[in-house]
Amino acid sequence: MQSKKSGGSREYFFPVIDNKSLISIIIVTYNAGEYIKGCIESIINQPFKNIDLVIIDGNSTDQTLEIIKTYDQYISYWQSEPDNGIYDAMNKAVKFARGQWILFLGADDRLLDGFSRLAEKLEDKDTLYYGDCIVNDQPLGGEFSAYKLAKMNICHQALFYPVKVFSKYQYPVKYQVFADYVLNIQCWGDSSIKRKYFPYPITSYNPGGFSAITADNLFKTDKSQWIKKYLGRIIYIRYCIRKWKEARKNGSKFF
User: Fold this and answer.
1) 2-215: what fold?
2) Which of 163, 112, 116, 105 minimizes the C-alpha distance to 14?
3) Residue boundaries of the structural domains of the chain
């Protein structure tokens, strides 16, 4: 394993400002040499500077580590070792995060100016704050209700999770693509976690990544049960009726 960790006092390149919330940005990488520089640069260039940057690499064999090392002064912690996929790496990364909120990025994502605008709004440590992603130059997201979440996931890269989330939940690694969807359903169903939306563009998201080329049939099978357990029976029934209508229209089977 290759790794770098700041000293016992935890030195930050980014200035820690006492009256500002510290945000941990976690980047999970594997052979991301083509993209990682742009992602890190988009973080460095943010007006908001109270940032704890953590990078967890899955033992890349391209130039990813060399690029990471050139930005060593900006990174609070990085390591490179084999893992069991994206969500295993994310679960691992949380252990090294020091912020009051955590934002996850892929190496091919880019932070936009909405990140700094929303970062200035963080105040309640029991609240999950979220904004929008930009995909193909179009905003994706909007404000979510429980039923909207049952229909579609929130863009993962637009969510500021309060750190308390990860004292209760982890990403279920059995799902290759949609473990973050499960986590968001759990957060919505948890009465101790509030949610607040701001219509700010947080991240430019690449729709052609891992999730676009990988099926997650296990999640598709289990999704309705997650909805029933955490979003409630009424949302579950509405979701099932909707899926039944879609299946009927398409001449396929829902159950």
Assistant:
1) Spore Coat Polysaccharide Biosynthesis Protein SpsA; Chain A (3.90.550)
2) 116
3) 2-215
Q: How far is C-alpha 200 from the chain's CA centre? A: 16
Q: Tokens 């460095």 appear where?
A: 44
Q: Tens of pLDDT along 62-99?
A: 999 999 999 999 999 999 999 999 999 999 999 999 99
The three-point CA angle 87-33-63 to 5° equals 110
Kindly state the DSSP code that residue 156 receives in the 8-state scheme.
G
Q: Can you say how many angstroms the Cα of residue 165 is from the centroid of all Cα atoms in its chain?
A: 12
- CA dihedral in degrees (235, 239, 245, 251; nearest 10)? -160
Question: What's the length of the chain?
Answer: 255
pLDDT one-digit tens code per residue, 151-180: 999 999 999 999 999 999 999 999 999 999
Of the chain, the end-to-end C-alpha distance in Å amounts to 46
Q: Scanning the structure block, which residue is given the tokens 């963080």?
A: 122
